[in-house]
Amino acid sequence: MTVLVEDHGNWVEITLNRPDRMNSFNEVMHGEMRAALSAAKARRAVLITGAGRGFCAGQDLGDRDPSKMDGPPDLGKTVRDFWAPLVRQIRTLEMPVVCAVNGVAAGAGSSLALNCDMVFAAESARFIQSFAKVGLIPDTGGSWQLTRLLGPARARGLAMTADPLSATQAADWGLIWKAVPDDELMNEARATTAKLADGPTFGLASTKRAIDAAATNTLDEQLELEADLMKACGESADYAEGVAAFLGKRAPEYQGK
Question: Do residue 99 and residue 82 come from a single domain?
C-alpha cells in the first residue's frame, strides 16, 4: 500500500508510504490517498504524515519524464486531474486536518502540507519550493498559500530560488503552526489531533470556513458570514453541550453535530 491508515477511534492517521521514493506521488498513490480521505469523513479529525526520512517530495518525476514519452507531458492535466482535486478534498473536509512534517517537504509535498489546517514540523525538516529547479511553478495551491501566508516578496523569493526553509524559520514566518524537536513530533501531533477530535468539531469546521473566506471577503462580507456561521453553531448540539458542561462544571462530551 502506498498510503497507510491507522484508526484511532474518532480520528485517523494517514501515512504516505513510498519511503524509497521520498513519498513522491504516482497515480496509484493519488487514488489511495483520495480513498483514505473519503473514508475519513466518518471520523472527526485527520493527521497526515510521511513514512521514512522525508514527508513528501511531491510528484514522482519518473512518471512525467519527457525523455521516456512520445511528446511533452501535459502537466496541466496532471494538476487538474490529480493535485487540484486532492487540495479541494483536504480543504473541504469538515474537520481539523493536522500535518506532521517529519523531514523534507518539497514541491507539491510542501504545498500538500500547507493545505492542512495545522502543520507541525520536526526541527530538522525543510520546506523546499523545488519547482524552480526543473522549470516549473508552485502548484497544488502552493502559489496561493505562499502568497497568502507570507506575502508576495517572500513567496517570490522562495519560489524563484528554491532555497530550503527550515522548520524553525517557517514557524517564525507564520508559514506553519509549530516546529518541535524531532523526537517529540509525532507525540505532539497525535495529542493535538486527538484533542481536536474530542472537541466541538461542528464549530471547528465553521471556524475553518470563516478563516478561509477572510482572505477575499470585505469586512462587511466577513461580518455577515460570521453572523450566519454563528447562527448555525448556536443551533448545534455541540454548543448546547458546551454550555451545559460549563454551567454544570463538568467536562463536555461533544458529538461534532
Answer: yes
